[in-house]
Design brief:
With 135 residues, the chain is of the alpha+beta class. The protein is built from four helices and four strands. The chain has a four-stranded antiparallel β-sheet. The longest helix has 15 residues. It starts with 20 loop residues before the first helix and ends in a 5-residue tail after the last strand.
Length: 135
């Protein structure tokens, strides 16, 4: 199950102030859940899109692999933020894509959170990590 682990380029920087606090809070919460290895919670609180792409077991397996290869997150710096309103495709609806330059215990990586708004709440739809340590 590697759709969640994908190479993704970093784009231009958009000021953090343009990212709604509700979106920032979801990313912070997911970061805390990853740090505390509460992977079941991530899955249970994710979007229907996430659940279509992975079972609970596969989702947990990916996060455990990330932890084993990269270690814990030490810092995360926003490098790109993009808000979209998609009328079709896999991510139909109101979407925020946030890319970070992330320092893990064992090295740096690109980390991308894709959140989709469902029933007035921002939920995780996709999560990508780009690092040579994952090869």
């Amino acid at each position: 199950f590697l759709p969640m682990l994908m190479l993704s380029p970093c784009g231009e920087t958009e000021p953090r102030s343009r990212v709604p606090s509700a979106v920032q809070e979801v990313v912070a919460r997911i970061g805390e859940q990853i740090a505390q290895e509460r992977y079941d919670e991530i899955y249970n609180e994710s979007s229907e899109r996430w659940k279509q792409d992975a079972t609970l077991e596969k989702s947990n397996e990916v996060f455990k692999t990330l932890r084993a290869k990269l270690g814990k997150v030490e810092s995360r710096s926003l490098t790109y933020a993009n808000e979209q309103e998609n009328s079709g495709g896999a991510l139909k609806g109101h979407v925020f894509i946030l890319s970070y330059r992330t320092r893990f215990e064992r090295g740096e990586a690109g980390e991308t959170f894709t959140l989709i708004e469902e029933n007035g709440q921002w939920l995780l739809a996709r999560y990508f990590v780009n690092s040579t340590l994952l090869q």
